[in-house]
Design goal:
Chain A: Keywords: Chaperone, GTP-binding, Hydrolase, Nucleotide-binding. The complex is a heterodimer of chains A (466) and B (657). Chain A has 13 helices and 13 strands. Chain A has 466 residues and is an alpha/beta fold. Chain A is globular, with a radius of gyration of 28 Å. The longest helix of chain B has 23 residues. Chain B has 27 helices and 13 strands. Chain B has a domain of 251 residues. Classes of the chains: A alpha/beta (466), B alpha/beta (657).
Chain lengths: 466, 657
């Protein structure tokens, strides 16, 4: 497995909002060909470790500027060891907040490397990252990674419902196209597990929509499990990738949820060849539902449809002229259409136009608008009623197309009612109102001062005549 | 002669024509100038506050016998110059308040406000008593540990445990808050408390207000000799457990110097349980009208720069609106409901113009939101306060001037707010980012210059950083030096006797105009992105701050931005980065005490807290004012319990990249 792509989890420590440094580090790592699963700031040890195991990462890189680093890093090492995942290397940094003697103690505890400000000065940023990659890719590290499954005995780690370690590793092997015949993690390979595909343009809010659907699934079905496979493109030039979907996900750190972020690697298509294998692994693991999320490449890409039972297209009201809708292939194939960011201008028009287009594409000339699977959502809003509707549509569609038998009477938790928009539509230009008003005032001052000066001068001259 | 007359007539006709184009208000300003000037030439300045006439001296005499005017007025004769000066500058206390919002500075109250917070509440309480020992005005500023900042409870889980009481004080219950501010009368007009907390601000605010109310209950109980009754209530409540106690594991000998015991006799109890409802209600109403201070609670800048958001942005804003409504209903008029902060935006790397523009834009966003909830501008605008950083850049010399001027113009002309609403008040903290870990002795020099900018600009409140802040938590020694910086400027530096020292400087006036226009231009850029919230969604503010931070780092690294003792003027050893020998961290006994206290609190309130949390959630679903419910909820629920209950009904913050 020498040619294995390095995968790393990056985050800032718990109760720590300082995310500037880790963002710089992860960018350099990406440029060195590393696949980064970025979690952002304020992440606890348990969720980071769970993520690293589910993602079958080689290493975790953490910044900690808020103190408590000794406990934090040691706890991380402990949890990894307990889980039989001591092969996952831990790297860290915290500028001057981590003292030299503390760095020594952490190294002695088994933390791969804590970088100090002095390292930064000596090696430079790039040098530091190269050092990190060298350690993570060393022969010893690779061997430990490969031999890790020998340590995976007993119940699944971290109280997880599924054996997330073997699921993760099987996907890794599939991805590396290693055809070693390893045992499938669980022997339910025949089980029919429904797969929902979510695709849409970049920035439409797919991961927020996915997170909100996952949350409702976990709340609504307290016994059921779910797997999410999320695909992002690799950078052609460097081979690295930013797998950023997890950063928006709040629901996924859950014993009944498994998530795997995948890069397209060298395939120049929206979905990598190993996707089908990853789906098979999750099916074999007998999850109750699988969500495949993919960015897709451009309006013409509908390749996701080949992998899934029910497909959902996520878009925003900002697609341009109505004729643009005629170019979107997914409007031919999608079982469900979600118009997200429904608080944006033109949302109502968009809903009408997309419905019209959907009717045309599906020859549903007589269908009622309300019966069409086209829904406006605001996934950024907590417990958005639009997402509730979307969730129920998805469940019904799964029952209809896959005989999934999910309970359709699921009710949603009551939550605080909130305005659709914080600033009322008619006041949206408030800042320009202010800048205009202040500039007008300044102009007025200048005009009035000019008049006053002239009056002063005239007055002076008039006085001279007296 | 005839010719002469006709010229004069022509001139007079022109004069009258011109006068018609003059705004009558402007004419008044010119006409009233001599009178205004006379008012400031007197020895005493007279003004009225709440029907009281106050006379303050207008001059101070130097050792040489020179009379130094507190407010010096321009010597202009040209009416245009005089008019322009009054419309754009004016004396302090007059629209557009460029030079300051008060006619004269309050006597006997320096703007000093020092930040403190470490370990358990008792330890920080001791520090508060230390830093305020010599000041007649007790101006306390609280730093909370990161566990509290993120709305969680202390606990043994190692990633939490390590952070308890570090870089701030650990506060999880109302009893913690009572200890923290004990020995200071929170309803005394000379006490004012600032709390740096954002995500869970409403909860901490409820802790604080309850602590203040119960202090007044204590005083009532003492005055009416009701301690027997109170003790009986306590005995009953703590039949099976130990009542909470004030105990500093680091100083077990007892209360710190200057502590009179106020605020500790009702630990574990609410005055409500001891006093008759009527009495309690009256005390509560009175306390709410008297408390003075600020809670940061600025959720917008958290998303833009500092990342301590915990609730979804909409819900966080709803909570802020609830606090503001509660303040209006209960006439909480001396406590700022929000401190709209540029400090963290600047610390994250923004330049001073961006700091000011983003912060004011955030401020106007709160204004629009509160108006949309039906509040009246004059009911809430006076509750808003601002908080800026002062670094070394030239623009910092006018940051307060520009802020006050834009705010006043907009509130007056667009929002039709009254004079009180037009007055922007702000706190300055000297820039932490401008301090370096090399040659740390030089840091006090930087802080001194920044403090001078702030004092010349008539800031309303000031924190000076300690020189060792770049490498560690400040010690009592370094904090003392930081306080001395302010004292030396305020008490020793002769020019600081003047309260409009920088007015009339050509450079200052030009900078003010330039920065004002730069801020307006930034408003337009944010507007193009859909306003503050729209721009946030595209991460416009974040990206801009990052870009500016990189620019600074680049200039620092290539030496084109000279930093003495950092990239130039290095000492023989090359001015190495200093590492602290030892870092002040909270101790094991403090952490264990916090956890034990929390466990006791939760256990003894188990039944009541379940009910209270349900009530809170129901109120959220019903769309009620949540702060009103929180005020009761904190009697029996801890911070973490409340945060998690609110997540269920309001949603957690969603990170983005």
């Amino acid at each position: 497995m020498e040619k294995n792509t390095l995968r790393m989890v990056t985050a800032a420590s718990l109760f720590d909002g300082h995310d500037a440094a880790i963002n710089i580090m992860r960018r350099i790592l990406q440029s060195k060909g590393v696949e980064i699963i970025h979690l952002g700031h304020n992440r606890g040890v348990q969720e980071i470790v769970e993520c690293a195991i589910e993602e079958d990462a080689h290493a975790i890189a953490i910044t900690s500027y808020q103190g408590g680093h000794m406990e934090f890093f040691r706890y991380m090492k402990d949890l990894l060891d307990e889980a039989g995942c001591g092969h996952i290397k831990i790297f860290g940094g915290g500028g001057g907040t981590i003292l030299p003697q503390e760095i020594e103690a952490l190294h002695a505890y088994g933390i791969a490397k804590i970088y100090s400000p002095d390292d930064g000065r000596k090696l430079g940023l790039e040098g530091m990252i190269e050092d990190l990659v060298r350690i993570a890719c060393s022969e010893v590290s690779v061997a430990a990674f490969n031999n890790a499954p020998e340590n995976w005995k007993g119940a699944p780690p971290l109280g997880e419902k599924k054996e997330i370690r073997s699921i993760a590793r099987t996907i890794t092997l599939a991805e590396a196209e290693i055809s070693e015949n390893r045992q499938a993690p669980v022997s339910h390979a025949d089980a029919k597990v429904p797969v929902v595909g979510i695709t849409g343009t970049g920035g439409a809010g797919k991961s927020s929509v996915t997170d909100e659907l996952v949350r409702r699934f976990l709340n609504g079905y307290p016994e059921k499990t779910i797997a999410v496979i999320s695909v992002d493109p690799s950078r052609k030039k460097t081979g690295g990738a930013l797998l950023g979907d997890r950063i928006r996900m709040n629901a996924i750190a859950h014993p009944r949820a498994y998530m795997r972020s995948m890069a397209t690697r060298d395939d120049h298509v929206a979905l990598s060849r190993s996707i089908q294998k990853a789906l098979d692994v999750c099916k074999a693991a007998a999850f109750d539902l699988i969500i495949l999320e993919s960015a897709g490449v451009g309006q013409s890409d509908a390749s996701i449809v080949d992998y899934v039972d029910v497909s959902m297209y996520v878009m925003t009201p900002e697609y341009g002229a109505a004729s643009q809708l005629e170019k979107i292939n997914m409007l031919d194939y999608a079982d469900l259409v979600c118009i997200n960011k429904f608080d944006k201008a033109g949302a109502a028009d968009a809903l009408m136009e997309v419905r019209k287009q959907y009717k045309r594409n599906h020859q549903l000339w007589t269908a009622n608008d309300e019966d069409l699977p086209v829904t406006g959502t605001i996934a950024a809003k907590f417990n958005d009623p639009g997402v509730n509707t979307l969730f129920l549509q998805m469940i019904r569609m799964l029952n209809k197309k896959c005989k999934a038998a999910f309970d359709e009477t699921v009710s949603f938790r009551d939550t605080a009612p909130m305005e659709r928009s914080i600033i009322p539509g008619k006041r949206i230009r408030y800042l320009s109102d202010i800048s205009e008003s202040v500039r007008n005032y300044n102009r007025y001052v200048k005009e009035q001062a000019d008049i006053a000066t002239k009056l002063y001068q005239l007055n002076g001259v008039i006085k001279m005549y007296e | 002669m005839a010719q002469k007359l006709s010229v004069k007539e022509t001139l007079e006709a022109t004069y009258q024509l011109l006068q018609k184009q003059q705004d009558p208000r402007c004419r008044e300003l010119v006409d009233e100038w001599p009178e205004l000037k006379k008012k400031y030439e007197k020895d005493l300045f007279e003004f009225t506050v709440r029907d009281r006439t106050i006379r303050l001296p207008l001059t101070v005499t130097s050792l040489s016998g020179t009379g130094i005017r507190k407010i010096a007025l321009p010597q202009y004769k040209d009416w245009g110059d005089l008019l322009k000066w009054q419309l754009q500058e004016n004396v302090p206390g007059k629209f557009p308040f460029t030079a300051g919002v008060f006619d004269l500075k309050r006597e006997g109250e320096d703007p000093t406000r020092m930040f403190a917070g470490e370990g358990c509440p008792e330890r920080t309480n001791k520090r508060f008593h230390y830093v305020s020992a010599d000041a007649p005005a007790k101006r306390l500023s609280t730093a909370f540990d990161s566990v509290t900042l993120y709305g969680e409870d202390p606990g043994h889980r190692p990633d939490i445990y390590g952070k308890i009481g570090n870089s701030g004080v650990s506060i999880a219950t109302v009893d913690d808050a009572k200890k923290l501010y004990s020995g200071f009368d929170l309803c005394d007009p000379a006490t004012s408390v600032s709390m740096t907390i954002n995500g869970p601000a409403p909860v901490l605010l409820a802790f604080f207000l309850n602590a203040a109310i119960d202090q007044q209950c204590e005083k009532y109980i003492t005055a009416h000799q009701l301690w027997d009754k109170a003790d009986a209530v306590r005995r009953e409540k703590f039949e099976n457990g130990r009542p909470p106690q004030y105990r500093n594991p680091l100083a077990p000998q007892g209360l710190p110097e200057g502590h009179n015991g106020l605020g500790l006799r009702l630990l574990g109890l609410s005055g409500r349980k001891v006093l008759d409802t009527e009495v309690y209600t009256a005390i509560r109403a009175d306390a709410l009208m008297k408390v003075r201070g600020t809670v940061q609670a600025d959720i917008l800048k958290e998303d833009q720069a500092q990342n301590t958001c915990i609730f979804s942005t909409e819900f966080a804003l709803k909570l802020m609106g609830d606090v503001q409504e509660y303040f209006i209903q209960n006439k909480v008029r001396n406590f700022y409901s929000v401190s709209i902060s540029g400090y963290h935006i600047a610390e994250a790397g923004a330049n001073p113009v961006t700091q000011l523009a983003f912060t004011l834009a955030n401020g106007f966003t709160y204004v629009e939101y509160y108006l949309s909830r039906g509040m009246h501008i004059d009911d809430f605008a006076p509750s808003l306060s601002f908080f800026f950083s002062n670094g070394m850049d030239p623009e910092y010399s006018v940051i307060g001037r520009v802020a006050r001027r834009i705010w006043a113009k907009a509130i007056k002309n667009i929002y039709k707010g009254n004079e009180r609403s037009q007055k922007l008040k702000y706190h300055i903290q000297t820039s932490g980012r401008s301090l370096h870990a090399q040659e740390i002795d030089f840091n006090d020099i930087r802080t001194t210059l920044q403090a001078l900018y702030a004092i010349y600009d008539n800031c309303n409140s000031l924190h000076t950083n300690a020189y060792d802040e770049a490498i560690t938590t400040p010690t009592e020694e370094s904090v003392r030096r930081a306080m001395a910086i302010q004292l030396i400027i305020n008490r020793e530096l002769g020019t600081a006797r003047s309260e409009n020292f920088i007015q009339g400087s050509f450079v200052i006036e030009e900078l003010t105009d330039l920065v004002e226009e730069a801020v307006l231009a930034e408003f337009d850029r944010i507007n193009e992105r859909g306003g503050v919230l729209g721009a946030m969604e595209r991460m416009y503010q974040r990206n801009k701050i990052q870009e500016e931070s990189l620019y600074y780092e680049m200039k620092k690294n290539d030496g084109s931005l000279p930093l003495i003792g950092v990239n130039t003027f290095l000492n023989k050893q090359g001015s190495p980065t200093l590492l602290p020998g030892e870092v002040i961290r909270s101790t094991e006994p403090e952490k264990e005490q916090q956890i034990a206290n929390l466990n006791d609190f939760q256990k003894r309130n188990e039944a009541q807290s379940t009910r209270a949390l349900l009530k809170l959630k129901d109120a959220a679903v019903a769309g009620d004012n949540l702060f009103e419910v929180l005020m009761d909820c904190v009697e029996t629920c801890s911070l973490g319990q409340i945060t998690h209950a609110l997540y269920e009904v309001g949603g957690q913050y969603r990170r983005s990249m």
